[in-house]
Design goal:
By secondary structure, the protein is of the alpha+beta class. The protein is 24% helix and 37% strand. The chain has one helix at 31-45; strands at 2-9, 15-19, 25-28, 54-59.
């Protein structure tokens, strides 16, 4: 299973990511921090279930 998080860039330079299929939401001040926070958020969401095999961050541009 793969989890896809939709990512938007905030006006202050940070990033916000959310899953449209699951109740997963996270943010980060940099792309690297967002990636780490996304892994942590997905791991916490699926703590009592099989973990997804991949996490995809999809940057949405206006």
């Amino acid at each position: 299973m793969e989890i896809v998080l939709s990512v938007t860039k905030e006006g202050d330079g940070g990033y916000v990511a959310e899953s449209l299929a699951h109740d997963i939401f996270t943010q980060g001040d940099s792309w690297e921090k967002l990636r780490a926070n996304a892994r942590e958020a997905v791991s916490a969401y699926f703590f009592d279930q099989p973990q997804p095999s991949a996490i995809r961050l999809n940057l949405v541009r206006d």
